[in-house]
Amino acid sequence: MILKNLHIYVEKKSKSKYSQYFLSLVAFIESIFFPIPPDLILIPIVYFNPKKFLATALNCTIFSVIGGAFGYFIGYFIFDIVQTYFDISKQGEFMNFYNDWGIFAVFLGGFTPIPYKVIALTSGYAQFNFIYFILLSLLSRGLRFFIIAFIIKQFGELGMQILQKNKLLIFIIIPLGIVFFIYLFFYHD
Known about the structure:
Low-confidence stretches: none
Mean pLDDT: 84
Order of helices and strands: HHHHHHHHH
Helix content: over 70%
Radius of gyration: 18 Å
Number of helices: 9
Strand content: under 5%
Number of strands: 0
């Protein structure tokens, strides 16, 4: 009974004229602190409004990245506060490591189940290049949300099953494979 009521509630909200605003809000705050991923709102909105899947995925991507930018700046300013109280010289190794490998961290954090908010805060804290952070976030978050939206639009109920059964492949193995090939072509001697 509870699941049926929840399904009816989600369907009603997903068909609402305010559904895109709600998705924008969730995508934004999830990138900073909210524990519920926007995928859980994106999926029913696309399911009940398949003709709007591109606009919905784009909305989710843009607001997720804007939230990530806020998270980045929170991390950046936390560094300024923390450095007055702690010996930051011991963190130099971490900063160098993150600046060398942050490209992969941001891409994986935006695409995989690794909480994007952690990557956003860490990128700011490590003072990772902001432009790279935004571009990589747009790429990784966009890929994630557009893949989800396309699968749901294309296959409906079956699409939800496809995502559920293949989440390891779609959200972990594929992005790790992409990172591995980028490393082979651009970083490997």
